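PT: before anyone asks, these are the final sequences, not the draft ones from last week. 485 residues across everything. Please model them as a single complex and drop the result in this thread when it's through.
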Amino acid sequence: MWKVGTSIDKYEHDEVVIRRRVALADSYAALPHCPSPAFWQCIASANTPLELLVRCLRDNNVCKDENIRQHILQIIVQRTQIINEYWENNVLKRLALSADERFALMCDLCADLYEHMLRALLDSRRLFWEENFLHSLCFERKHVYRSFMMREGRWRNEHVAKGDRVPRALVMRLDQPIAQDGDRPYMLDLEDEHAQMMLQAIDASDLLRLVLHLPAHLKTVVLLLYWEGRSEKDIAQTLGVSDRTVRNRMQKALKILRDFLINQTEDE
Amino acid sequence: MNNEQQEDIFHITDLYVTEMQAGKQPNVSDYITRYPQYADAIADFVAYYHAFEADGPATVASARLSRVSRIALTRALRRVQIEPSVPITTLLATGTRHFTLPELARKLDLSVDIVALLEQRVIDPSTLPWELYQRIADVLQQPIGVVQAYLAGSPNSGGSEKDVLPSMKVAEEPALYSVLNNQYSPEQSFRLLIEESLWLSPGQRATWKAILILEGL
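LR: through. Structure below.
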């Protein structure tokens, strides 16, 4: 691990991880006996780390019967409900949907997330959940987001040709003026200027959603160029490739994104 | 991508998120410069994180289940049939002593994935250190010869995966860092597993490597 980073990174982070593990182990050892009232009071407390709840869930000495397991699961769902629903709203907010359709999709997405979360929580091989619950949940949501969008036909890439609908707001933004670095338009010397203009007219948050649809090696270039504002030369240096490679990747990315945006417009 | 790489990405992105939450505004390019072998994975995570996660609530708080959550949780529970974990196989259920994988892993100071492979007898027995035989014998209260005979036996003649895991009715796509059962080919060396296991802590890895060196394996 940490092969390229400096040794300081490695040791500092390892120390943080070890400290976190020790603290969690101590807290776990200090839990009152299950199923005493003190145990449930502790488990239901907002101050109890979620990682401890996962460990309880996986420990047969604690979860002696199914009721205890179900109860702990419900507490975990209750404690993560607000962040999960924020995420679900965020995923669906750009989709042009009727109220009924939105509610139905929201339930589907939420059920998918809970299903994945329950499976992960009950799988004792998934040790990250006992170490860093919220980051594990973030990865799970990332996975669920992608599979949900693909299943709903809302994910376009070279392997998935069909897509349905796109946010109208996104298409509207294509007509907005381009501005970067204050009022000065920023243009690369690329053949596909139209696609580039389209991209630069899009809000940063929408750009990130688009970038997610690109193949991995193109994603990095677009992210560094349009989101972080790096120059072509900087990117080439960062990635250890030539300027020409960066330019080629940008052209490929722009072509894909242009097709994506045009298809969206036609669908609308 | 192997387990070690997935673990790296998990920790690198955790660092990124921690810095973001501390208000440090980390640069993606800095991370890519430091970890060029993970450039694509870092970019993928960062794009996703800023699109959907970055502005979310930072803390978790308990709340009564909303209508959406109630409906969704009912559906999810129906899809995931939960059964209590059961003791497994001839190695882990001996006489009056019953162990689950995590329990035995803790007692042996090993990770769950390696214990599962031991139990399936798909690790080359000649690569196992004597220390491990001894620990298993102590924990199971069996003669070392019995343990040796068991681990030298034919693979998969004991329990199966369905004995170990909660049953799942719906096929699930593997998550980013899940351990796949077919990830190890039969008769792999113990040393390789120690080096590649996602679940061993750095301390455990170092300890087992030292034992292997000590025993000339």
